[in-house]
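Explain this one:

_____
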Amino acid sequence: MAPSPGPSPGINLQVSQFPYAWYIAAIHRKIKERWDGYALNGQQPAVIFEIGRNGELKRVVIDKSSGNPYYDQAAIRAVTAANPFPPLPVDFKEPTLTIGLQFAYDPTETR
């Protein structure tokens, strides 16, 4: 699995066998915009989500709980609020793209 492009203390995307860095950067940017300022110090949630060919979010689930169900729901909301995503690249032939996302606490990001 390859980490998200560039340094970003807010979120880390994990995708395997998907060579389209520009697409991952776009997904990363959309979700990070909705997460910045909501992160809390402590254990961070991780989610797994799927994007369909047309860019629509197909599913999102908690992969690793933060231990706080409200905080876990904030992570799910950050992903669902970023929907829709750009359509999957034409050269990517799979019907969906599955992405693992580890949220992180960045004390410099506040709301």
Q: What stands out?
A: Strands lie at 11-14, 46-52, 57-64, 96-103.
